[in-house]
Amino acid sequence: MIDCPFQLNADGLWQCTQCPYIYPIRSDKPPRKICPMAPSIVEAAKKLGIPENETMRYASILHEWQAEGCPIREQEEIDWIHQTLCMPCESYVRFARCKRGTCKNESHSVELKYMLPMATTCCARGKF
Q: What is the mean pLDDT of the segment spanning 33-48?
């Protein structure tokens, strides 16, 4: 499950944007609570077409993406990033993989087809 994506409401209390829960105590930091309205990590991964065996590798990225409302980049932007920024990069590996991906571990690579559509992701090298 995914935590509630909280934001401050007009009364200065933390309120989930997905479910009707309002945290009754004023605090500087949002609370942590599993949101009953949020899809599971597996459901979010399926929305992007990520194979289930790779789901946990992307769990934190999916969590951030979900908290922002699952914004998707336009296909034109995805194509431009891939062709203009990714393919010429020294970290680009054939079959549209990046060895500098989210895990930042040279022994792993991430499939760009899963990462580029999520508008909350960015390049580990700061290119986008």
A: 73
Question: 């995805």: which residue's tokens?
Answer: 78
Q: Average the pLDDT over 77-92 and give the result.
A: 86
Q: Name which of 30, 54, 34 is nearest 42 in CA terms.
A: 54
Q: CA Rg, the chain, in Å?
A: 17
Does residue 14 sit in the same domain as residue 51? Answer: no
69 closest CA partner among 16, 107, 27: 16
Return the closest-CA partner of residue 70 out of 96, 94, 46: 46
Domain assignment of residue 76, given as a range: 45-115
Question: Residue 65 is encoded by which pair of tokens?
Answer: 């993406």
